[in-house]
Amino acid sequence: MATALAALACSQRAADRQAMTAALPAPPPAWTAPVVVVLVPPGPPAPAVDPELLGTFRMTRYYVAHEAEFKRAPAPAVATDADGEADDGGGDGDEVLAATAPAATGVTIYDDRGCRPLATLGARFYEVMDVQGTGKLRDGRVVNVSSPCSCDTSPCYRVMPRTSPWGMSASMRPLQPFRTVAVDPEVVPLGTLLYIEELDGLTMPGQAPWGGFVHDGCVIAADVGGHIDGMHVDFFVGRYQYKKLIDRRRRMKYVTIYDGARRCADGARGWVAPRIGS
After folding, report:
1. 111 pairs with which residues across the strands?
2. pTM, to two decimals
3. Which residues of the chain have pLDDT under 70?
């Protein structure tokens, strides 16, 4: 009897615990720490790197010499008699007074690939073309000074392809008006982009695609010259009249030049001519 009462009491306590547990409120969910986002303000931008100043350079200008702007070369000399008639050896009575006309002063230029005569030119035009390095003949051909040769006249020349209407530079890039400069490669390596402060903002003479634009100061060192030494650049302007126009607007005997690798790289992709054969 006592055992039965004890079992009944235990059973009642278990039932009471279950009832009490059911009556308790549900425990709160586990606590989670809030996510805190800390916004760190950006630091100051990296300071701009100033382009390297290369220095103050003397600047000259060069161009393509045009034969049409010079007098024609004299005709070949012919023997004449006293009447000024061509002396053909006939017995017209005055052949004993025959004289020889003054010798022609034309200069024959030769191809650099075998001494083939290219043209006979007036002496003055030849002199100018020899200094400038490139000439446009009356027949439309553009010839570029090539190299010393063993022909009757040296140096020899080479006829330019249509892809080089202004001639060829020493670095084998087509010459480009207002973009090519000749340099001393011991001072400025060929292929270097340069920024010329005094050119920036100037309107170039001529018409598109070569001229008529506002210059950004960017050029490429692509050529050399016999008298380009040290701190000296020669700015290719295409034609003699363009040289005069630039001289008239602003005489730039000395210019300030910076390394243009950073400043000019993006824009130069649109105008830097590739090297021929590259």
Report:
1. 157
2. 0.72
3. 1-49, 73-104, 276-278
